[in-house]
Amino acid sequence: MKKIIPSLMCILFFLPLHAVAGYDATRTPIGYWKTIDDVTGKPKSILHIYQSEGFLYGQVVKIYPRPGHDQNELCTACKGPKHNQRIVGMIVAERLKQDVHHPSLWTDGQILDPMNGKTYRCYMQMTDNGQKLNVRGYIGITLFGRSQTWLRVPDATINLHHEKL
């Protein structure tokens, strides 16, 4: 009995810590995210991250217009089928897959910067109990790139004022 009580106390003490850690690691980035400019620190857009056929995608649902622009801004710098496409509605993150060893990490995708029209390799990692998403776009190896931290936006606070997604 003297050995059982300390063992039970340890289990009861560490079980909540394990449950919280497990919850954070398996949380999904599906939802809405406010993108923050890594240079100015100002909000750039709201993206809807969704899953299709096991991959994550990110679609712009709202932009915070730059001076002299509005919600109808076009991707003039984009090449191919996205050239002159409206940024709102555009899919800018594509084909990210979940890392089997680190469930909070999504890798091997691509991300488009509509301001310069360039596409980069990309990975995303959930932090802060699913409230932040660290996003890294890079060329070749991860050393050559830039990072942003996106902030989760509760679905109930989204006011998109545009057509259905």
Any idea what the shape is?
globular
How many DSSP helices?
Answer: 1
Compute the number of structural domains: 1
Q: Approximately what portion of the residues adopt beta-strand conformation?
A: 35-45%
Tell me briefly what this model is:
This protein has one helix at 4-26; strands spanning 31-36, 43-52, 55-63, 91-98, 105-113, 118-127, 132-138, 145-153. It has 165 residues and is mainly β. It has a single domain, classed as Lipocalin (Beta Barrel).
Structure characteristics:
165 residues; mainly beta; eight-stranded antiparallel barrel; 8 strands
Please characterize this protein's 3D structure.
The chain is mainly β. The protein has a single domain, classed as Beta Barrel (Lipocalin). It has 1 helix and 8 strands. It has an 8-stranded antiparallel β-barrel with strand order 1-2-3-4-5-6-7-8. The chain is globular.
Strands, helices and their partners?
Elements: H1 4-26, E1 31-36, E2 43-52, E3 55-63, E4 91-98, E5 105-113, E6 118-127, E7 132-138, E8 145-153
Antiparallel strand pairs: 1-2, 1-8, 2-3, 3-4, 4-5, 5-6, 6-7, 7-8
